[in-house]
Amino acid sequence: MSKEAKPAQKRIDQFFSGPGCRADDWRDLVEAAKVWARGGDRAKYDAALADLSVTEEFHGYPGLQLMAALREAAVAGDAAGSLALSTRITQALQTKSFRQHAGDASDNDEGNGDASDLLVPTSGSARRPYFETLIVTGVSSNSWPSLAAEWRKLRRPADQFVYEPVFVGSLEDAFCATLLNPNLAAVVINEGFGLRSRHDAPILRTMTSSARLNDESDASALGLAHIIKRIRPELDLYLMSNRDVEEMAGNPEANVARRIFYSIEELLELHLSILEGVQDRYDTPFFDNLKKYAQRPIGTFHALPIARGKSIFKSDWIRDMGEFYGLNLFLAESSATTGGLDSLLEPTGNIKKAQDKAARALGADRVFFVTNGTSTSNKMAVQALLAPGDIAIVDRNCHKSHHYGMVLAGAQPLYVEAFPMTEYSMYGAVPLKTIKQALLNAKADGRLDRVKMLDLTNCTFDGHIYNTRRVMEECLAIKPDLIFLWDEAWFGFARFSPFLRRRTGLGAANEIEAWMHDPKSVTAYEQQQAELGKNPSNEVLLKTRLIPDPRQIRLRVYQTNSTHKSMSAIRQGSMLSVKDVEFHTVEQQFKEAVFTHASTSPNQQLIASLDVSRRQMELEGYGLVANAIEVAFAIRKAVNNNPLISKYFRVLGADAMVPAPYRQSGFTDYLAAGVNWANTLKSLDDDEFCLDPTRMTLVCGTAGFDGTQFKGMLANEYSIQVNKTSRNSVLIQSNINNTRSDVAHLVRVLAEIAGEVDRGLAQGGANAKKTFEARVKSLMKDVPDLPNFSHFHPSFRGDAGTKTNEGDIRSGFYTAYNAAGCEFIRLGDPEIDRRLKAGPELVSASFVIPYPPGFPIMVPGQVITQETIDFMRKLDVKEIHGYDAKEGLKLVRAEALAKIGKPKPGASPKLKAAS
């Protein structure tokens, strides 16, 4: 860098910038080097190199030597050398080839060998997974190159992994490195480092000030360890003390560290400990044993003909299936639970070990692997935790598995409504005030003891995320032993994002648990009680952010994840996570639920994929999720900022998806002007609802397409698959599988479609424009009102209270089994309108679930209202579960309702045969 170059302006606290942004910065450097090498202005190259130099300090590759070599070439005015070296580094980063040659750096003590050696492969070297280790030290940065050489000398051919050290000298830099470097797998914290970074970091200063880190004395090794563990709990931490190491080791606060060392007297032991820690995460007990099993000569005399593949590969007729899937799939098939394998129903061996590792990764006490989807995970949880007659507060718009779970358990759902988004024919999430009102109504009716569970979807299909901690704390303030079931089918990846983790059920549960053990929690509770007085009104309680009594809380949290929806698991792979202080009281019930729902012939490959997906997320999930978020930002920006595409399409921001009353921080969207991680964190901490950045509602109605039509067009004509639609939108979601090339393909297709719409309007004349505007108006303005749940018919209310609206859905469900007691009326029949006005009431005998929106608009035993019929008649979707247009609505006959006996508390009513 020339002496005349301006100081680096790049900020180290731009945490929106992910792996893709780093790659762009390197490509920009190469382009600037090309301009300089052709005789152009070198100032742009100097500026780009200065910017890169700031954040590259936090990465092991290119590292100290190569960055120094780049600067030296610039100072020497060597444009050709700068271009050559920057190009080679960029290519190594793009191809990740540096990971395979990380052991090839010069090992001389000064660390000043030929920097190009880092790019030269070692012939015949075996592939070893690569990671980086952050070393926080108070030693002068002048000594870092020689320290790096000392660390490299510890490498041995026997090591299964290879890593590069990354040195920082302050708490702020350690914080930034933890956030910006996805390759980190371990952190070594020495005492004696400083607090402040020497780089510009105003947002970071705001965050450290809020954490009360204002003085150099606040930069303690243990304090930093806790900060890093909160950001990235998967990282192994090693503390190095040059004082009373025994005292630190005996401090309960030091349990965040994997091991504590005295100074650096045993550098080899530290090196081996780092490798052992990564090995612990790398081990996949079930998958490892399945691979060994597949390589053994096995005689199979059990009922699984495809095991070992002989019936496949010796066949003239189905050999193509074997050739398609490969031999290992069949070698690894077995119905045995011995010989190195294990039983999913009663795991005691490697499946149990794999589940324990998954519990550690997800922050749970225990995890159950489920091989037939989160529908089954949800039903298992509901069946195990609820008994006949128990009341559960349930989001009426949740997945159908929860409703069916209530039927199976005989529990009585007390449905609560999410806020409507009528314009887009979808619902959001359930406001906390609605949930609290349901609890307070049950209390007023003397029925709070029967309310056992709160069952919510987080995040929703469309990306609405609850403030899980606030929901649980305020509900626990009313009922301290309430069970929480968070259906996070779409949100499993959030555990591995420090920003989104707080919004998961388990993330919030761990925060609540820590708060409960803080003496300040009791003080906060007692202070609020004094302010509220002895008998606060419900109105006051609804307006107050309630604090629970930490001494009374029984923390009982369950979380289900569709691992296959957000991690690298085979379809139907799911995990059910438990953090329940009372689990011992329901453990046998859980086993019964597993026996009820789990197959006795679970798929081995599916179990293995759950094991492997955990390994991947613990070792590289942080970077993969950061990339998924960055891909989503790229899509949002490309769609909404493109002049042509944005004429007909747009991705809805948080301000459109979350009504202002639920965005108390004033947050509008991730890409709005002036938004950074400081105000984003405030939104994530304080707002009642946030929007998952990876879920994008793309409005297509403004281009004249309904959601189903547009989804079909994308799939059939452009080979783009999306999942969910609404009347006038499609849902696009990014995941850990997506690349920037996927973004480019999507944007190109949207530009092509927008161009066709544009040309059609320009060439079609006034009539075409009029037809188009009418179509858009129909899709965007003439939308049906969304129906709320009405109520259960009194025949299914039994012992219900006066203020609550729960019902015996199980008895309603089984009325449909009595064919004589049911009738069918077509949707357009005037009889429906007559009965809506004059009676008798229309009572649904089944679930009716249109896709979209994908939630039950009718459940068994529900009284059907005018708004529900109006919605059904305006629906133009083809897929409606539980409804046959030829037969019509399935209803319970009035005379059958009259013969249904009143149920006793906790029991389902007996059905009498209809005449």
Automatic annotation (TrEMBL):
UniProt cross-references to Gene3D superfamilies, sorted A to Z: Molybdopterin biosynthesis moea protein, domain 2 (3.90.105.10), Type I PLP-dependent aspartate aminotransferase-like (Major domain) (3.40.640.10)
Top-rank EC class of the record's enzyme: lyase
Residues covered by region (Disordered): 98-121
A GO molecular-function descriptor: arginine decarboxylase activity
Cofactors that this protein relies on: pyridoxal 5'-phosphate
Superkingdom of origin organism: Bacteria
Start and end residues of each Orn/Lys/Arg decarboxylases family 1 pyridoxal-P attachment site domain: 284-514, 556-733
CDD domains xref list: Orn_deC_like
Keywords: Aminotransferase, Lyase, Transferase
InterPro entries: LL-DAP_aminotransferase, Orn/Lys/Arg_deCO2ase_major_dom, Prn/Lys/Arg_de-COase_C_sf, PyrdxlP-dep_Trfase, PyrdxlP-dep_Trfase_major
The enzyme's E.C. designation: 4.1.1.19
Name of the protein: Arginine decarboxylase
